[in-house]
Amino acid sequence: MKIVEASGAPRTIGRCTGEALREEIREHLAFPYIVDRADWEQRLPVFLSTLQRLLPDAVEEMEGTAEGANVPSEDIFRLNLPMVPDALNITEGCTNIVFAHGPDGPIWGKNNDGLPGQRRRPVCARLVRRNDGIPLLVFTFCGMLATTDGMNAEGLAVGHSSVGSIFQQSDEHVPIRLWAYEGMMHSRTTADFVRHMTRLPMRGKGYSILCVDRKGATCSIEAPCPLMQVRRPDAGHPHMHCVNCYQLPTLADADRRDEADKRNAHARWRLLDRKLSEKMDFGLEDMKKLLRHHGDPGICRHGERDGACTEYSMIGLPQSGLVLFSDGNPCKNAFSEIDVS
After folding, report:
1. What does the pLDDT look like over 4-30, one tens digit per residue?
2. How many CA atoms does the CB half-sphere of 141 hold within 13 Å?
3. What are the boundaries of each domain within the chain?
4. Looking at the domain that runs over 94-339, which CATH code has it been given?
5. I want to staple 69 with a disulfide (CB 3.0 to 4.6 A). Which of 25, 92, 136, 269 is the partner?
6. HEC profile for 184-203?
């Protein structure tokens, strides 16, 4: 996994990223389309006019990325502006965990999982210091600005799990991943980020997003786009998790998951509920142990038996400013550190 550092204006950050990831971006672009290209091209002007109105810096950074990678701008737009067809079957599985407090302060951890036997998309870590924003480390697929996983220098950590959405969406809604990326550059606390994310309707395949800040304030944003709902910790249980289903009862059927997918997500939900109720204070080693957990269900996942394969693992320590990551299964690979502060 490459680590790319980029500073300055959005276009400069994009150029630096594109130059550093030129081969990886071309590899990502070689993956097959999952939607009709002609339809996407017809809708692109509306996608771009929406971004120019609401997130002009994202357009600048994408155009800069294309310049740096020496590819057409439309290729980078395609990676960042998915069409999200109504019939899309959501199958990805990821697990996010947050400890609100403990000997190492608040902690966010995530295993990012892909499908068994699926070719792995190239991933990178981007440490972005934009002129007008809080320094931010994001983990994303090469050519994409962000996937809603990372931590900023103020100690706000955010991770997402794919779920799905049954609701109608508009091309004039801003993409949720790009809106979250902008929010992480301007939010110092969980409350700031929630206010940002609930300001306007967004489009996307639908996510459960877990947040924690330096003071241990936690929540989950359950987002079957364009709807947004906030799930708070249960009384007396400050630690939280999110998996590939919505946990708010009113959103239980707001996804596009089949029953087999939901069974695995519900099993991880029950497992984590049990694990997080075992004690009040958890530390870094506890997070590593959870992310390496094997069993039925597994959190560290290895193929058909687990229904997914863990591609990489991330841990954020908001009070120290350190982010740890493991490329591949965390049970087999050591964690490396990046200082975001």
Report:
1. 999 999 999 999 999 999 999 999 999
2. 18
3. 94-339
4. 3.60.60.10
5. 25
6. HCCCCCHHHHHHHHCCCCEE
